Amino acid sequence: MDYIKSSKPDTCIFCTKPAAGDDRANQIVWRGQLSFVMLNAYPYNNGHMMVAPFAHTANLEDLPLETLTEMMLLSQLAVRALDADFRPEGVNLGINLGSVAGAGVKDHVHIHVVPRWLGDTNFMTVSNDTRVIPQSLDDTWELLHTAFAALKRTETDITDRAGGSLTP
C-alpha cells in the first residue's frame, strides 16, 4: 500500500540505482557488463528479482543480441541462486511490456524472476490483498549476492557463453 499511495519518481529505477554505485543500498545483487540483477522492492515472494539492461530501453525488440544473451544468462544464474538458498518448488520468469501488460516501469524492459512455492497464495493475498514477506530485503540481498558469487566461481564457462564478463 505504501507504494500504491506514494508519489512516483520521475526517474527510472533501472537507471538511477545502478548509477548510484552502492549496490547493497540499492538492492543490486549482481552486475554483468550489459545488464544487472536487483531485488524487487515490493516483492511477490521472498527472492523476487529483476534482470534489466543498463541501457534505458523500453522495447524488447530494440535490445542488441549481446544484451539479450546476458540477460538470459543472468536469469539462469538467478534461478540457480534461488535454488541454492531458497529451494523454490517453481519459478516464474516474466516480461511485462507496456503498462496494459502490467509493467510497473514501462520505459525500461526487465525480466521478473519470482520463486514460487505450493500455497504461496493464501488467504492474506486472496481476501485481504496483503502479502506476507517473512524476510527483510537486506537479508535476502545478502543470501542472493553470496549465492551469485559462489555460482560465478564455480561456473567459469558462463563468460564464454555470454561473450563477455559477468563479474560484479
What strand order characterises the main sheet?
1-2-3-5-4
Average pLDDT over all residues: 82
How many distinct helices? 6
Give the name of the CATH superfamily: HIT-like
Low-confidence stretches: 123-130
Spell out the helices and strands N to C.
Answer: HHEEEHEEHHH
The overall number of domains is 1
CATH class: Alpha Beta
Under CATH, the topology can be stated as HIT family, subunit A
Strand % is 5-15%
Overview of this protein structure:
With 168 residues, the chain is an alpha+beta fold. The chain has one domain: HIT-like (HIT family, subunit A, 2-Layer Sandwich), CATH 3.30.428. It has six helices and five strands. It has helices at residues 2-5, 13-20, 65-85, 123-128, 137-154, 158-162; strands at residues 28-31, 35-39, 49-53, 90-94, 111-116. A hairpin with a 3-residue loop joins strand 1 (28-31) and strand 2. Helix 3 packs across helix 5 (137-154). The chain is globular, with a radius of gyration of 16 Å. Residues 123-130 have low confidence and may be disordered.
